[in-house]
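Continuing the series of single-chain predictions for the mutant panel. This is the parent chain; the variants come on the following pages.
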Amino acid sequence: MSECTDASDEDLCAPGGSSGGSSCAAGEIACSDGQCISQVYQCDGYADCTDASDEVGCGSGSCPASEFQCLSGECIPDSNYCDGIDDCLDLSDESACGGDTCTTSEWSCGDTQCIPASYYCDGITDCNNGADELC
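Parent structure:
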């Protein structure tokens, strides 16, 4: 049974709703190797199947004009691009921003300011732009 209008939730299933001879419960999809996972994990940007078949055929698509497309395919609001907070699963919304030289023990406010990593989401605004408390 397809829950998606384009039937993409059925892409990994063989006829009869199973793959590799396995039978999954309602709300699950069959990985190519027969493992069953919840269908909410299909095309979520993470390989939940041991063979990563839940991410095959998801396509990168395209995002609406008001959104940034992460290298991993998901879309985030443009306002989240280079805001100092990692929103993309692959961190691509922050990796190309440049401008700061924070160390690994620091957190980037996204505007060239660095604060100690322990200050992130501690209930006290330390970044001039307040990005450290947008948790």
